[in-house]
Design goal:
Radius of gyration: 22 Å
Largest sheet: 7 strands, parallel
Helix content: 40-55%
Shape: globular
Oligomer: single chain
Bound molecules: nicotinamide-adenine-dinucleotide, zinc ion
Distance between the termini: 66 Å
């Protein structure tokens, strides 16, 4: 510091709040939930809105776009659709490249949307990430209402504060922190999911249960077969508890925008993200997460953080639910003869900000952070998990 230097200290807080609502038939004429959510600030004005719909959802629910338009007409005193719903290719493809993002941004610009306008994003985590990202850039952030349509999006991807796009050969390499205006979980959408996306989200529920809630893990372990067999009551309980733990973490763990290096909700994800990239995104996110959790749980067992019995129960929970604990991708070698999946650790370290911080369970329901992952233990874990029958 020289005498000419001066430092003024600047600081302020911004409060974010958004409701997470549960309903059935969100666009049905007798439900005023969505309209009242849009009107929750009582601004006494008619808002512009654009609906962006996941193509897979539009196909499985052929009347959806017409239902949205009819709903808008019915609640025309609260909002008007500036254009017919945009139907976009869903899944991981939504997150690859800028073409769709630019298209959405152009549509938002052409229709003169303002910062009080609404983007309704209806779809799986891929569409919510991409549409949320585009909406977070236009005028530095429009209001997004997420209507997640997969289990994983209802209990994890859709309820938090982040958006992400795949670039530079890395999962979620770009993205933004953009809390939604509201989230509406409608379980009617879940009835049309294929089995992969029905059960995939259960892996995220096991994730939060293992590090935060032993009772919830018991529920998931005991309900694994019912969840696999599409028991809707069981799935609704699974979604509500998982989403509540997720929200609680964001609200009260002290780092909603992830400035620090600890990332508990990314337990199992260093491996999961690399497996997704290695598979060209054919391996589902939920399935990759169950493998990643199984591998890191094996690690935790070897470090004395979990008992062999606890590891067995975790593996049992996944296999009974029909989620994988192993994939042949785990054995794939990189150019230098090492394990390809270990490259995920390096990407994870960079993403966190230089210091590797991996969350592991410490007895079921609790967690701790470690700053190193032992490649030899990862190899043993892959061998161990590979020897487990899938059912
Ligand atoms: N932003 C976050 O905080 C966050 C957190 C976790 C995961 N994610 C992301 O979420 C993505 C995974 O999302 P996902 O598992 O929800 O799947 P997805 O968005 O990849 O969709 C899977 C497939 O299901 C179809 N689909 C969606 N809803 C349907 C329905 N109701 N009926 C029939 N078909 C339907 C889609 O068209 C798509 O083909 C990943 O890219 C992941 O990185 C983001
Ligand atoms: Zn995840």
């Amino acid at each position: 510091m020289t005498e000419q230097d001066a430092i003024y200290s600047q600081g302020f807080n911004v409060r974010f709040e958004y409701p997470l609502c549960y309903t059935h038939g969100v666009f049905s004429p007798d439900s005023d939930l969505l309209a009242s959510v849009m009107d929750r600030k009582k601004e006494n004005r008619k808002h512009k809105a654009m609906a962006c719909v996941d193509g897979g959802v539009a196909e499985a629910h052929p009347s959806l776009c017409a239902d949205i338009q009819r709903y808008a007409r019915q609640y025309g005193h609260i909002f008007e659709l500036v254009a017919p719903p945009e139907v976009l290719p869903g899944g991981e493809d939504a997150k690859l490249g800028w073409d769709e993002v630019r298209r959405i941004m152009a549509a938002l610009g052409d229709t003169h949307m303002c910062r009080q306008s609404f983007v309704l994003a209806v779809g799986g985590g891929g569409i919510l990430d991409m549409v949320g990202f585009a909406a977070s850039l236009v005028h530095r952030g429009l209001r997004t209402i997420r209507i997640p349509t997969t289990v994983l999006a209802q209990n994890d991807a859709g309820v938090g504060v982040k958006t992400g796009m795949n670039e530079h050969d890395a999962k979620n390499f770009i993205g933004s922190f953009a809390p939604p205006f509201a989230v509406i979980n409608d379980s009617t959408f879940l009835t049309t999911l294929d089995q992969k996306h029905w059960i995939g989200g259960v892996a995220e529920a096991v994730k939060v249960a293992l590090i935060k809630d032993a009772d919830f893990f018991e529920f998931l372990h005991d309900s694994a077969v019912a969840l696999r067999d599409r028991d809707m009551d069981c799935m609704e309980t699974c979604i509500r508890r998982c989403a509540a733990i997720h929200l609680d973490h964001i609200r009260s763990a002290g780092d909603p925008f992830e400035f620090g290096t600890a990332r508990p909700l990314d337990f199992g994800h260093w491996c999961a993200h690399e497996l997704e990239v290695m598979s060209g995104y054919r391996f589902g996110h939920g399935q990759a997460v169950s493998v990643g959790i199984a591998l890191d749980s094996y690690h935790a067992m070897r470090l004395g953080l979990l008992s062999e019995r606890e590891l067995k129960r975790i593996v049992e929970c996944f296999t009974k639910a029909g989620l994988p604990v192993w994939t042949e991708l785990l054995s794939q070698q990189s150019g230098d003869g090492g394990l390809q999946v270990l490259e995920g650790l390096e990407k994870f370290r960079e993403h966190l900000g230089g210091t590797l911080t991996v969350t592991l369970p410490k007895s079921i329901g609790h967690s701790c952070e470690v700053n190193a992952i032992d490649a030899a233990i990862v190899r043993d874990g892959i061998e161990f998990l590979g020897s487990i029958p899938s059912r």
